[in-house]
Design brief:
With about 140 residues, the protein is α+β, with helices and mostly antiparallel strands. It is about 20% helix and about 25% strand. It has a domain of about 80 residues: Ribosomal protein L16/L10 (Aldehyde Oxidoreductase, domain 3), CATH 3.90.1170.10. Helix 1 runs antiparallel to helix 2. The chain is elongated and about 55 Å long.
Length: about 140
């Protein structure tokens, strides 16, 4: 699973995901992509699950690019612990995804295979998405 090798700080604030994506909104590598339409935190496990679904459906043909990286540590307090006593320890890594962000790109496979693979991957993610292509936007 994806996670940073080292970070400046061990814990991060939760924050809010406001506005649209500033960069990463256009297809750069592949012919088809999965674009987020709602803001949400995507965990490294969800990214890995989506990647596995895409590669399995494409039968390891073509190429897959992951355009997001989980760099935000999400902390959690253990169960049955009383309130107070500071912030919990980092539990997993997540990526803050804004609307308009391309999350995955695919190339080297027919349009119908790419479209279906990205739709299956979208089912594994907590964000609402749409499949986009170089030719034009598709549902």
């Amino acid at each position: 699973m994806l996670q940073p090798k080292r970070t400046k700080f061990r814990k991060a604030h939760k924050g809010r995901i406001k506005g649209n994506a500033k960069g990463g909104t256009a297809l750069t590598f592949g012919a088809f992509g999965l674009k987020a339409t709602t803001p949400e935190r995507v965990t490294s496990r969800q990214i890995e699950a989506a990647r596995r679904v895409i590669t399995r459906h494409m039968k390891r043909a073509g190429r897959v690019w992951i355009r997001i990286f989980p760099d935000v540590p999400v902390s959690k307090k253990p169960t049955e612990i009383r309130m107070g006593k500071g912030k919990g320890s980092p539990e997993y890594w997540a990526c803050r995804v804004k609307p308009g962000r391309i999350m995955f790109e695919v190339d080297g496979v027919p349009a119908n295979v790419a479209h279906e693979a990205l739709k299956l991957a979208a089912a594994k993610l907590p964000v609402q998405t749409r499949v986009v292509s170089r030719i034009g936007d598709q549902d």
